[in-house]
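Support reply, case 0932

Customer input (verbatim):
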Amino acid sequence: MSETSSQVATRLLPRWTQPPRDLEARVPGSKSLTNRALILAAVARGRSVLTGALDSDDTRVMRRALDRLGVSVRAADGGSTLTVDGCSGRFPRETAELECGNSGTSLRFLAAMLAAAGRGPYRLDGNPRMRQRPAADLIQALSSLGAFASSELGTGYPPLLIRVEEPGLDGGFAFVKGDVSSQFLSALLMALPLAKGPSSIEVEGDLVSKPYVTMTMKMMEHFGVIISNRDFKRFNIRPSAYTAAHCAIEPDASAASYFWALAAISGGSVRVVGLDDASVQGDVAFVQVLEHMGCRVDRNARGIQVAGGPLRGVDVDMNAISDTVMTLAVVALFAEGPTRIRRVGHIRHKETDRIAALATELRKFGAEAIAHPDGLTILPPSDPAQLVPARVSTYDDHRMAMAFALTSARLEGVIIEDPGCVAKTYPGFWEDFEALRLQAQASRE
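Our regenerated output:
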């Protein structure tokens, strides 16, 4: 299934000859939950066990960094069970250079936690794209709270330097802009219980991706720390100690979106096992958008099933579920009428400028795509037969690869460049996707 062209690895996708009918998909653990659990377990008192954890490039970045900081993380069951011996709020290694690749959660969470629980100095760097991802707001907030944090190049971007002359942040008051990344706020919230005094964080403007901050607070509570949240505008944190916990990681709702979207595009039905409306992950709300587009959704104790039907375009605010923007954009290719995605301007600062990348790749399939500062509009051809297969550039962005793979449900000859980029969050995606296709084909033979 793989080939190379002009030195770029590609994957040629066969068209699905049969839609999936009443099939079940299982996705790996949540990357967001795994990395939050890892860093909290690392600074907790005692031994924690994480089950259902994700083993991917991003979580390995966090595990390697913790190892370099002297925290023992032992993996079993193919990396899905992690045993972490916490350091009781003080990292053993006094200095370290940490390579974070393009893992935004790792770099941002580690930078804040090192300021609170480190000894220093520390240097955090990443790949070329990470050096284009903003960090100035985090640096400024940490400095306001008593840290010695800076951008090595003076640009407000990585590499970051964290120097700790006296263990622990002072605490106090800081502002965080809400419109760039909720990861800055999550990083501070997790670190500040280890500060020497009480702290308050004020959010300037509207906070993007609020469900991820809720996820952070629920994970902190799981490890024994509760903070005050005033309508996502002001957070008050008292000095507290984290305690070890057993933590069962939920399946990744962002990864689940691809299989729900597959059902929508193909007209079939797929149930993702292990997720329900009680999930702490905001991205389960993606199925509500599919309902508005014409799909049927069944929720029960086993999981959430989506059944496809005639699709219609929608006008939707995806600020709270922005990791599923690419998935919805591909679904919109096969809908009747335009789709407008709003209030996701912050995704221009992700692994790539996702708004620009989506617009470029959607046009290759025959759609009109208009990029806006806060999102995009997708106008598919009036006749779906006018859609054409394309060679998709993925921009070293795992979500571009997985989302555009869904076009093969209806189109023959789609080519995905750099298919290996899915290893960032879902190393087994291609195997799972192909296994489901073969199950669908066998069910009709």
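We compared this against your earlier run and they match. Two observations from our side: The first helix runs from residue 31 to 43. The chain has two domains: 2-28+251-442, 31-240. Please reopen the case if you see a mismatch on your end.
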